[in-house]
Amino acid sequence: MTTLSIDERQQLAKSVRAACERLSSEERVRAVAYNGIHQHKGFDAELWTVLCSQVGVTAIALPENLGGAGYGASALGAVAHELGRSLAAVPFVASAVLATTLLVAAQTEQPEVDRRLAGLVEGSRTAAAVITSDGGLWRPDAIPVTAEQSTAGWVLTGTARHILHGSAADDLVVVATIGEVPALFVLDAMAPEVFRKDEQVLDHTRPMATITFSSAPATLVSRRESIPELVSRTMDLTMAVLSAEQVGACERLLEISTEYARTRHQFNRPIGSFQAVKHKCADTLVDLEWARSASQAALEAMDDGLTGESTWYASMAKAVCSEALQGAAHVNVQIHGGLGFTWEDSAHLYLRRARTDEVLFGKPSEHWDRLALESGIFTGGNAKR
């Protein structure tokens, strides 16, 4: 794996920010996610094409033998940070990180898998991962899909909810059980035996779907004994990258809050001069820096291959960044006063993102417990924060 220097990461971030400033303005985010100007709500196909073809976000962390750059988690984090700032409506976390990494980590040389991977790297296809029953914390004993071998091949049966970017995906990467043993499959999302239903979500830039498999034909990618460990590592990477998105959104919220506090006048003075507002902004800055450190630590743990520690680093980042973003979103609403409660202001867009990311891949309370157990703070029993 090649590690990007700080300057190179900044250049990468600058390229992503330029694309987002051009194609992910607040007005465009509203149009794509809430007004449905594209075929699939919450998926900006034009922005995704630019990010894939001009910046190469889908190939950044892939091994060089698969046409990627092999830059690792920190590079993914640099991209995610900028996407989080603008609430970009693209399936970066769902497709480029979670689903693609699962296929790459399986290390198979099947033509069918290679063909789908090529499309994902080019950006001509997107994928969604079906891993848990409710989009929450990954548990090997709670896999909702089962696999059976028929005369025509493998078929999948089961239902999973809250599949991130599941409606627009071309491919589905599915963890299913053969008997009681987890295995990895891939299939065409447009197959007639696959039924997808859009869900009513709070944050329309994070579209989700309920997906039902009714004896859907699928390609077996791998059934190695290490599949649970592979999925766990991939989920840890995904949470680390998600935390970078959360840091980006939190950073942008602080900028919005302080700018409004400087320009909004009350009683003939800027509201930012009042101690209560100063303290809210200062507390948000402290939370942001905590979150930035936690996220970067998790990304570096992934790059360094700290197998025994990456799990609790990922949980720490997910918990800290979720709470920081939620706090920043609420402070932003409060500083904006009555304006912050209106549809016309951007405050609710970030609040929706904060509340959605809070429960995505597990709630903060679950990750605090996981952190306590995995890091050895507690031995035995259920750890509570």
TrEMBL record:
<dbReference type="Pfam" id="PF02771">
    <property type="entry name" value="Acyl-CoA_dh_N"/>
</dbReference>
<protein>
    <submittedName>
        <fullName>Acyl-CoA dehydrogenase protein</fullName>
    </submittedName>
</protein>
<dbReference type="InterPro" id="IPR009075">
    <property type="entry name" value="AcylCo_DH/oxidase_C"/>
</dbReference>
<keyword id="KW-0560">Oxidoreductase</keyword>
<comment type="similarity">
    <text>Belongs to the acyl-CoA dehydrogenase family.</text>
</comment>
<dbReference type="InterPro" id="IPR013786">
    <property type="entry name" value="AcylCoA_DH/ox_N"/>
</dbReference>
<dbReference type="Pfam" id="PF00441">
    <property type="entry name" value="Acyl-CoA_dh_1"/>
</dbReference>
<keyword id="KW-0274">FAD</keyword>
<dbReference type="GO" id="GO:0050660">
    <property type="term" value="F:flavin adenine dinucleotide binding"/>
</dbReference>
<dbReference type="InterPro" id="IPR046373">
    <property type="entry name" value="Acyl-CoA_Oxase/DH_mid-dom_sf"/>
</dbReference>
<dbReference type="GO" id="GO:0003995">
    <property type="term" value="F:acyl-CoA dehydrogenase activity"/>
</dbReference>
<dbReference type="InterPro" id="IPR036250">
    <property type="entry name" value="AcylCo_DH-like_C"/>
</dbReference>
<feature type="domain" description="Acyl-CoA dehydrogenase/oxidase N-terminal">
    <location>
        <begin position="7"/>
        <end position="110"/>
    </location>
</feature>
<keyword id="KW-0285">Flavoprotein</keyword>
<dbReference type="InterPro" id="IPR009100">
    <property type="entry name" value="AcylCoA_DH/oxidase_NM_dom_sf"/>
</dbReference>
<feature type="domain" description="Acyl-CoA dehydrogenase/oxidase C-terminal">
    <location>
        <begin position="233"/>
        <end position="363"/>
    </location>
</feature>
<dbReference type="InterPro" id="IPR037069">
    <property type="entry name" value="AcylCoA_DH/ox_N_sf"/>
</dbReference>
